[in-house]
Amino acid sequence: MDYLALAFALLLPWLAATLWLQILWRGPQPRQLPQHTTAGRWPMLLGYGYILGALLSAALLYFTGISGLPLSVWPALLVISLFAFGAVWLIRNPSALPILAPQQAAQHHSGLNPQTAQSETDASLRDTAVSPSVHASPPSHASSSEQGMTPGRTALPQTQSTMPAWQWVIFTALLISVGIRLTGLALELWWQPLFPWDAWTTWGVRARVWTELHSLVPFIAPEVWLADPDSPAYTIEAYDYPLTVSLLAAWPALAYGDWNESVAKLPWLGCALALALAFYGQVRRWGGSPLAAMIFIWGLFSLPLLNSHIALAGYADLWMATLVGLAFMAFAHWARARVWRDGLLAVVLVICLPLIKEEGAVWAALFLPALIAYWLPSRWWLVIAAVALGAVLLALVATDLEQVLPMLNGFTLEYQGAWRPIWEHLFVRSSWHLFAMLMLLTLTLAIVQELLGITPQPQYRSALAWVLAVLTGFYILFFWTVAAQWAAMGTSINRVLIQFVPAFIFWMYITFSISWSVFGKR
């Protein structure tokens, strides 16, 4: 039982993944982005680094188990150490990987000096995302030619290094508020036993068995287990759930040296911190000021249900919410400037969704409408989306009731939902504060902006298409499948919604920011 080994096992994967992300982001910036735009990079890298490091740890622990070795973190930590040393070597020797060479060297070899690159950048990007009332950059009185801009074009908003004193006061107050809240949640996480239902019936059970036996013992169906009393396998009702969440819980316990529920829950606290860091960094990279980023983080972490999933660690939904949120934010940045690094991050995280929960395969498919909307002309995608939605609804009504929804364990399609429980959970009860109302307001604003042509850039229509696809999926799930009973009983409607809330709140930011850029200065 070694807390030093525990700290080493938790921090090393985070460090290794963050270093590799730093290598990716220290390379030459694309000409669509200002070369000196680095605001939010390190919080973003730390947030994404923790999640990728945790997933890497779970993967290596799994391969250790199936290789026949005793289940231990040390073989995996050896591999991760090699990854970390490799990253350090590349950072010290950037010329070894030309594609990731420092930015200045790339400009030199391309024949561009920083001033020329910046001038061409500003003239090439039509993006006006800024944050309401806390605009990241002050108004400039220079002419468009002095700023390297062509008439009718708007440069990417620049993030200034200082804010007015009153904004720093508010920023500090919000930061302290979020810090106090996360500290309280961390204490609850540490002090309370493994309480959530899924944790002590599925995720925690497997992690404890693996930790105590030091073996990746298989879990099989109850009827199969009963038919073979001599089998070394174990059984639980949800025996076929993905292994990743249980591996994430087993990792710190194995490093600690014995099963300890508080120790096993520590990755959930890290997941919450990673979500906050990544969210802050991505808002800053979009052009938001520190205050704008902190306001939206405060809104996210003030949601009672999200707080419950942090304090009552053990559910898989916090991990799913973080992966979906980080994937959506990376996708939005890719759609904004086609930076391959953002696209790679989005693809990796989307691929990992089915490894957390079975429905992750369906959630991954929801990014396809966003990709289609990205390539469609802005005037037609809403019409095509409306026709497609009508066709889906018609098919639901006309189909026989034996049709099966793919990838959802054979849910039969039959209208059986009701609006009342949806209304009560989202608007009446206290799990969501004002989130549902803000969601309706943002959805209305985004559609109006699209219809009026205020947001012709593809990143906005692709983000809106993703949100509409998610909402359509909710409707089908909770009105046309047995999941309607879950909504009536309140057993999972909120847990499904929480998986998309961080992404929704980031979408709220980019939607309101473009409105401010158009109307806020008039």
SSE diagram, text form:
Layout: H1 3-25, H2 41-66, H3 74-92, H4 103-110, H5 114-124, H6 165-191, H7 197-213, E1 219-220, H8 222-227, E2 234-235, H9 244-256, H10 261-264, H11 266-286, H12 290-301, H13 304-311, H14 317-337, H15 340-356, H16 360-365, H17 367-375, H18 381-398, H19 419-428, H20 435-451, H21 458-480, H22 483-489, H23 493-498, H24 501-519
Parallel strand pairs: 1-2
Helix pairs in contact: 1-2, 1-3, 1-9, 2-3, 2-9, 2-11, 6-12, 6-13, 7-9, 11-12, 11-14, 11-24, 14-15, 14-21, 14-24, 17-21, 18-21, 20-24, 21-22, 21-24
Characterize this entry briefly.
This protein is mainly alpha-helical and 522 residues long. It contains 24 helices and two strands. A two-stranded parallel ribbon has the order 1-2.
Keywords summarizing the entry:
522 residues; mainly alpha; two-stranded parallel ribbon; 24 helices; 2 strands; globular
Describe the structure.
Among the domains are: 1-125, no CATH class; 195-264, no CATH class; 369-519, no CATH class. α1 (3-25) packs across α2 (41-66), α6 (165-191) crosses α13 and α17 runs antiparallel to α21 (458-480). Strands 1-2 form a two-stranded parallel ribbon. Mean pLDDT is 82; it is low at 103-160 and 400-408. The chain contains 24 helices and two strands. It is mainly alpha-helical. β1, α8 and β2 form a beta-alpha-beta unit. It has helices at 3-25, 41-66, 74-92, 103-110, 114-124, 165-191, 197-213, 222-227, 244-256, 261-264, 266-286, 290-301, 304-311, 317-337, 340-356, 360-365, 367-375, 381-398, 419-428, 435-451, 458-480, 483-489, 493-498, 501-519; strands at 219-220, 234-235.
